[in-house]
Amino acid sequence: QVQLVESGGGLVQPGGSLTLSCAAAGFNFRSAYMKWFRQAPGKERELVASITTVHRSTNYADFVKGRFIISRDDDKNMVYLQMNSLQPEDTAVYYCATVIGPNYHWGQGTQVTVSA
Question: pLDDT of 83-97, one tens digit each?
Fold first, then answer.
């Protein structure tokens, strides 16, 4: 059974930083591309960043380029999202996800609120 558990969200002031973590279990993590999505109130879920396997190539949405960094630790079955220079528009629930076969698998999400 695929399990993805996010942690690390919280309240942060504009300009601050947070690092999200996602613990994965129940599948071959080393072979899985991993992704972070977010969903703000009233908006659709959007892709934030992704990371491949062996070469660990990364891809970012334009709105986070230069501010967020995705990384993974295959020994610990963990994926991370380091978020810097956070702005109020980054406020959202952040989800860890992976695709196995035809299906997306999601974590429960972690709330990030950027406010003074």
Answer: 999 999 999 999 999
